[in-house]
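[User] At your convenience, examine this fold.
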Amino acid sequence: MANLREANARLAGVEPYDPKYLPAQVMVSANETTVDAPDEVRRAVAARVGQMPFNRYPDPLANDLRDAIALWHGVSRENVICGNGGDELLFDLAYAWGGEGNALLNVPPTFSVYAANAHLTGTKVVEVPRRADFSLDEEAIVERAGRGDVGMVVITSPNNPTGDIAPLGFVERLLNATDALVLLDEAYIEFADEGASSLPLFAAHENLAILHTFSKAYRLAGVRMGYLLAHERVVCELTKVRQPYSVDAVSQAIALEVVKHREAFEEGIARTRAERDRLAQALAALPSTDVHPSQANFLCVRFEADAGALWEGLYERGILVRDFSANPATRNCLRISVGTPEENDAVIAALESLLS
């Protein structure tokens, strides 16, 4: 038989997730921390991995790591589930709380994977767009979530690509207005002001789930490790749909050492925050440039000039940033991750040249 039947009809027209990865001397496009893990952590990881039997399957639920994360955040093991990056957990949530007859409430502009996962799982997407200044339309979100047809609400805090925080008062009102699962994606929360996390609301609201990752502040983008804090009923449902052994033994071991040595990352987080503020001030001084306030490790910058042309000019100078200008909501916007002081200086100098 010469022909192959068509794939799932939901895949028609789907564009694969593409972070626009290209080689460059200054890589400030993917919101990574641009320095590697501290030496003391790498030594601890090497010692642990060096004693690991590679011929055995890993703990399927990563229970040692769950225990360490639970102790860290003041919850129980039953409130923690680990995933192959936060991305696996996002898909599992869409599968478990989405599907036919359910809707995802999305607040664009935000991370594109939420809507993509909804499409793949047959979930209707209901959008309550952010305002022109990227702030949340709080009243509209609370009202729409309370209608009863929404299975999950996703709020990213700090938001990607804009960097702003969801106020906790709003989050609490949202939780009280709906029985939908309310996911706070806090992938960048370590870079935000103290008290920005929704964790203080966790104990009183079983419909709150909080997504964290080791990829950003804890410098493990290449390892793929994320975790969710959620009510034990949510964790139980997710264990039904997650892929077997999705979190390998090496990743578990690395993440466990990072949790144990997390104080070693605090200086780097503080340095990133300081560089973010310095970079924002320098970019705001450029002509016809609007830098959106950010509590993440990146800046969303709107230019009067053609952002696509600026992206090209930066790349010709060996600098890779992320171009969001094709989306009407982020027209002429570039997202620039915070790098080392030298990398940030290179970005500033290049944009000064291009805009002069």
